[in-house]
Amino acid sequence: MRLPPFLDHPPLPVPRGQRALWQEAVLSLVMVFAAACVSYVLMQSGFPSPEALSILFVLPVLAAAIFLDLRLALVTVALSVITYNLVLLPPFWTFDLTNPQALAKIVVLLIVTLVVSALTTRLRRITGESQARENVLRGLYQLNQDLVGKTTVAQVQAASEACLSALTTVPCQIWYKDVPVDDPLLSEAAQEGASAGAGQELAPHDPRLILPLIDGEKTLGVLVFTPQDRVPFPVELYPPSLLPTLAAQVANALSRAALAEAHEQQARQADRERFMSAMLSSLSHDFKTPLVGIVGALEALEGRVDSEARDIVADGLAEALRLNRYVVNLVEISRLEAGVRPRSEPLHIRDAISGVLRTLRPLIGRQKFRITVEAGFPLLNLNASLFDLVLLNLIENALKYGPAEGEITIDARVTSDSVEIDVDDEGAGIPPPLREPVFTKFYRAVEGDRKIAGTGLGLYICREIVASYGGRIEAIDPPDGTGACMRVWLPEAATLRLATFEEETE
């Protein structure tokens, strides 16, 4: 039997499995025969104490218990006792148990050989278990040494593959997360979190050994040993706990590296956001004053020019107002991220919607609006400027991404412990996987999004403002199945329940 290449000290002087059982039986007979021959020669030479020669028949039993199969050790005990009776006890070459003295000697020899065999076998087992534990610790130490200083998943993966391949002399490959779906056995092992392949319950005839990489209760991937020439992986050469323990250590190292990478990525993202916030805050304040002057000048000029020039002035005013909205968004981001909480005041939902529509009038072409306010809808207790900014961003998005002649629906209603405001358009909609990312800062990944002017800040600002009042905003499935629907949920604390008004629809 081959030993693992990293086992410097095998648990047995001569490992089991190099010989067939019949070969070991022959060895047992040879050892007993040799003891009988030596005893006979000494007896013929006039050895003074034949009883002392009985120790020679203990030696084959001791050797068999150390080197051979346990069953053959017991057979050797029987052969030694029988041969001792034939060679050393009179009448010689006769198996006679009628002599009480001879019978006592045989019983004593039998007891001695059985005790020696049992003690040797136990010592052999203890030595093997101790060596197995040492091998586990040696393998863990070597793998741990190879993983020192590896901080990324790729580094841990490469170091682990190299170390385990060297330890076992069998090519090793680690599949981390991206387990190939075209290999059913790998996929099943990863899904079930169970070992597979050579000697395992799952696909025991597959020559590979597949071990799951489990960290806690999560399976990260699989560890695959692939012997060359499709020879089954020699599982029997290794202590039962060694390879699973090594796989667990690899899984733990991969998990730590993944956490370190995620932390580093978050730190870089935080640094980028701090830089962008500082830059945007500076730019917004630098732009705000001249923009106010430009808008004021264009508004004053709009009524003093002829009709031909008035269209040009109106276009310039619309673009200036759009740029001003971007600046307002940037200013409000700076305030929200600084933790500034503006003063709240009673706000009528219809007044807020009407004011926003007046602001967006230059953008409104042939789109139609359907506004419904449920009876009993309370006054809102919010900062008017911030809530106007929420409505402005939502309605502006509906105008930009909806069809030129589509309908935009604004629905305000009351629930048991909150109020809900939906803004629904008839555009292409938002795919479900993107309904959460669209609320992150600078996100503009919707198909066709980059062709439309914008900064990717509008929905992020909406979420931050609504969250500051204990509410939430989310993209939901539109009622009629087309377009995008944004729902603003505000808790009862953000309303004045005593002040309500009747249902209005237009």
TrEMBL record:
Transmembrane regions: 20-43, 55-82, 102-123
EC number(s) reported in the record: 2.7.13.3
UniProt keyword list: ATP-binding, Kinase, Membrane, Nucleotide-binding, Phosphoprotein, Transferase, Transmembrane, Transmembrane helix, Two-component regulatory system
Occurrences of domain Histidine kinase (ranges): 282-494
Localization, UniProt: Membrane
Membrane topology annotation: Multi-pass membrane protein
Molecular-function GO terms, alphabetical: ATP binding; phosphorelay sensor kinase activity
Reaction catalysis annotation: ATP + protein L-histidine = ADP + protein N-phospho-L-histidine
Primary localisation category: membrane
Any one Pfam family match given in the protein's UniProt record, by short name: HisKA
Example of a GO cellular component annotation carried by this entry: plasma membrane
Keyword Zinc belongs to the record: no
Protein's name according to its UniProt entry: histidine kinase
